[in-house]
Amino acid sequence: MTSIRTIMISSALLAAASAAAGLIAPAAAQSGDMSFFLTSNGPGNGGNLGGLAGADKHCQTLAQAAGAGAKTWRAYLSTQAADGQSAVNARDRIGKGPWQNAKGVVVAKDVADLHGASNNLTKQTALSEKGEVINGRGDTPNRHDVLTGSQADGTAFAAGEDRTCRNWTSATAGAAMVGHSDRIGLRDDEPSKSWNTSHPSRGPDGGCSQADLKSTGGDGLLYCFAAN
Fold this sequence. Notes:
By secondary structure, the protein is an alpha+beta fold. The chain has helices spanning about 1-35, 50-65, 110-115, 165-170, 190-195, 210-215; strands at about 35-40, 75, 100, 105-110, 145, 175-180, 200, 220-225.
């Protein structure tokens, strides 16, 4: 009787392990298919991301840790014309789409859809590379301000008033345009609901320090897209 009971228990444990393995496998596959995420953390130096190259590297590193490092990842960031260099538009850096999050949910079919009224970017779909929901308005701490430096159509701001923390090289003076990943703000208007162009950063350190970004509900987070 004892041996039969032991066999039954062993069989049950084996079945449970097999079921667990079956549940884990699709999650891993979905992670590999991920082509969009909101970073779980920022580089930690405010608006100084090390330029576009440093921001792209941050996206690539997080994607690699999540099992999606085979793709070429780009940060959704624009730069402004300065020092003889032309502006760069965020919309031109991120590939053609479609893009899906870590759970396999499509957030946009293509560049036009991403910048249109029907995109599927919400607090519940703008997941981190780990498949986690990022804190928004009403959560503690609020982390919904996402660095973009971009206008609503994904293009760069004109040269002049800084909207990119000096093209992502300043952690003090300047300002960065941010979007709201949860599409919620202080008012019921389009900027408050914008995922990519809600308001400029500000604060006592000049607008681009890590402390300044946190003070208005951010953490130096980035949108990352697979460009291939």
